[in-house]
């Protein structure tokens, strides 16, 4: 190494050889390339590029395309689900509104029935009270008649007793009847 560094002559020789090689090799030589090595390296590069393309990049792009399609399909499904969800929510809200309307109708109908039933019950109660009052009046009238009859009987008995005491004699049943009828006619 020292020889090569210390002696300038071999460097000139190298420069001459590269120039000679450049003239022998043509364009590649003028660029400082060895055609044989360049061809082998190009073949190696092409071989590695093919291997990388067919074994790595092609399956990778295929997988990426599949993934892209899967993501797009998923996004479309999400949009469909969101649309279905909105439609379901709208239908749900519609059903709830219908149920509220129906429940209000039922409540109103029940209220009307309750009012009607209350009116019927009031009327029945009034009718029952009127019937009870009428029956009470009849019972009072019957009791009054019974009391009159009893008072009449008692009065007749008292009158008979008083008359017997006054006359000091006993009336027969026939005389009693006649006498009582005369008194009753006068009382009426």
From TrEMBL:
Name of a matching Pfam family: ATP-synt_B
InterPro entries xref list: ATP_synth_B-like_membr_sf (IPR028987), ATP_synth_b/b'su_bac/chlpt (IPR002146), ATP_synth_F0_bsu_bac (IPR005864), ATP_synthase_B_chain (IPR050059)
TM segment ranges: 36-57
Keywords: ATP synthesis, Cell membrane, CF(0), Hydrogen ion transport, Ion transport, Membrane, Transmembrane, Transmembrane helix, Transport
Taxonomic superkingdom: Bacteria
GO cellular-component term (any): plasma membrane
CDD domains given in the database record: ATP-synt_Fo_b
GO molecular function: proton-transporting ATP synthase activity, rotational mechanism; proton-transporting ATPase activity, rotational mechanism
Record localization: Cell membrane; Endomembrane system
Cited HAMAP family: ATP_synth_b_bprime
Subunit record text: F-type ATPases have 2 components, F(1) - the catalytic core - and F(0) - the membrane proton channel. F(1) has five subunits: alpha(3), beta(3), gamma(1), delta(1), epsilon(1). F(0) has three main subunits: a(1), b(2) and c(10-14). The alpha and beta chains form an alternating ring which encloses part of the gamma chain. F(1) is attached to F(0) by a central stalk formed by the gamma and epsilon chains, while a peripheral stalk is formed by the delta and b chains.
NCBIfam families hit by this protein: ATP_synt_b
The protein's name in its UniProt record: ATP synthase subunit b
């Amino acid at each position: 190494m020292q020889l090569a560094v210390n002696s300038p002559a071999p460097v000139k020789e190298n420069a001459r050889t590269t120039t000679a090689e450049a003239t022998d090799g043509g364009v590649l030589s003028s660029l400082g390339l060895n055609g044989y090595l360049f061809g082998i390296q190009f073949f190696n590069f092409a071989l590695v590029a093919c291997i990388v393309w067919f074994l790595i990049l092609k399956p990778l792009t295929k997988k990426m395309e599949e993934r892209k399609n899967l993501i797009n399909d998923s996004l479309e499904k999400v949009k469909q689900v969101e649309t279905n969800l909105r439609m379901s929510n709208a239908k749900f809200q519609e059903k709830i509104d219908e149920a509220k309307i129906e429940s209000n109708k039922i409540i109103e109908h029940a209220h009307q029935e309750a009012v009607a039933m209350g009116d019927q019950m009031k009327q029945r109660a009034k009718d029952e009270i009127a019937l009870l009052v009428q029956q009470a009046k009849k019972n009072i009238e019957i009791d009054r008649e019974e009391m009159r009859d009893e008072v009449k009987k008692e009065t007749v008995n008292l009158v008979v007793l008083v008359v017997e005491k006054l006359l000091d004699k006993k009336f027969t049943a026939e005389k009693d009847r006649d006498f009582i009828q005369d008194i009753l006619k006068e009382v009426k």
